[in-house]
UniProtKB/TrEMBL annotation:
Name of the protein in question: Uncharacterized protein
GO molecular function: transmembrane transporter activity
Residues spanning the membrane: 23-41, 62-83, 89-113, 120-145, 157-177
Domain of life: Eukaryota
Membrane topology: Multi-pass membrane protein
Native source species: Adineta steineri
Length: 335
């Protein structure tokens, strides 16, 4: 609606030609360029803060500073333009007013869209669709009565209406930034300084673990969420180290033993997050490893090539006897 005011203000009221009447849009373009530069610089700030304090689970609210700045600039530009666009005032004053408008519009657009991406993650497309539908509905409806509104209210008050609307919406970026995590912004800043990822989000340690696992192994959060149940289990890994594990996989140079090693490292990485006692690793033909917490321990165990038979039943019997006797029955056993 603001952009539709330009032909009315400069062509109808100032009697400019159609070509000259389009030149004031340069002010909006300058604002957009400045906002683009600002968002690039702000992204450097975002990357630095995220990598330093919470690289695993960055807060969506850290995307909002451009929207906060833009929400301040937008009503300033609109009110400035609304009350300096009369023919009695030099045209450059109202053109300059369009610069903070272009800056605020672009900053809000980029900040809000980045916030939606980090908030809705795999549902971002749905969030974008809802956002665009609402924007297009408002954009198409306002076009139906923009000219009539400027005729009835005049160029000052007609432009002031969207300015008042942006003024009403101004607090929302601040509210999302302050209460988006359910914590005051001051506490978020304090926790950022301490680097405490778990407290930053004011969520349980399990939620932070799920976030890290889903990002690290590129799996859906819904799938990673099922791993919560591991906290009720004592985890034991049984590895087949028989001679058959030397078999190559699908015409590659990798063997079943190589794939088993990578699989065990992943299971160990996830398991130790939920089992503070560590993970026990049993082999069919070599000594077991108890209370394993470090992946390098697995590398040492897998450095020797596989050999031997597959005495699965005796090994499982040994596991049931030793593990249940050693750990008790406070947790279930997961093999």
């Amino acid at each position: 609606m603001f952009l539709d005011a330009f032909p009315i203000v400069y062509q109808d009221k100032r009697n400019w030609s159609e070509g000259i009447g389009e030149l004031p849009f340069i002010g909006v373009l300058i604002g957009i360029i400045l906002a683009t530069i600002y968002t690039i610089l702000d992204n450097i700030r975002y990357n630095y803060t995220t990598n330093k304090y919470n690289p695993q689970c960055p807060l969506p609210e850290t995307r909002l500073p451009p929207a906060i700045v833009g929400s301040i600039c937008l009503p300033i530009g609109l009110f400035w333009f609304a009350w300096t666009n009369s023919p009695s005032i030099h045209w450059i004053v109202s053109v300059i007013a369009s610069v903070p408008f272009g800056f605020g519009m672009t900053s809000i657009f980029v900040g809000v869209f980045n916030y939606l991406i980090d908030t809705y993650t795999i549902y971002t497309a749905s969030a974008f669709a809802a956002n665009m539908i609402i924007r297009y509905i408002f954009g198409s409806v306002f076009l139906l009565f923009t000219n009539q509104m400027y005729e009835k209210l005049g160029i000052h008050w007609a432009t002031s209406i969207p300015a008042f609307l942006t003024l009403i919406c101004l607090p929302f970026p601040f509210i999302f930034y302050k209460y988006g995590t359910g914590m005051p912004a001051s506490e978020i800043n304090e926790l950022n300084q301490s680097g405490d990822i778990l407290l930053q989000r004011q969520i349980s340690s399990d939620d932070a673990i799920i976030c890290e696992i889903s990002r690290k192994y590129k799996i859906l959060p819904e799938m990673a969420n099922h791993l919560r149940g591991l906290r009720d289990y004592e985890i034991v890994i049984v590895c087949d180290d028989s001679g058959s594990m030397k078999t190559e996989v699908d015409d590659t140079e990798r063997t079943r033993w190589d794939e088993l090693r990578e699989f065990v490292k992943i299971v160990l990485d996830i398991g130790v997050r939920y089992d503070s006692n560590g993970v026990d690793i049993y082999f069919l033909n070599r000594e077991k490893l108890l209370v394993v917490r470090e992946p390098r321990t697995v590398e040492q165990a897998f450095s020797e090539p596989p050999s031997g038979l597959t005495p699965m039943v005796p090994v499982l019997k040994k596991i049931f006897q030793s593990e249940l006797a050693r750990r008790g029955r406070d947790k279930k056993l997961l093999i």
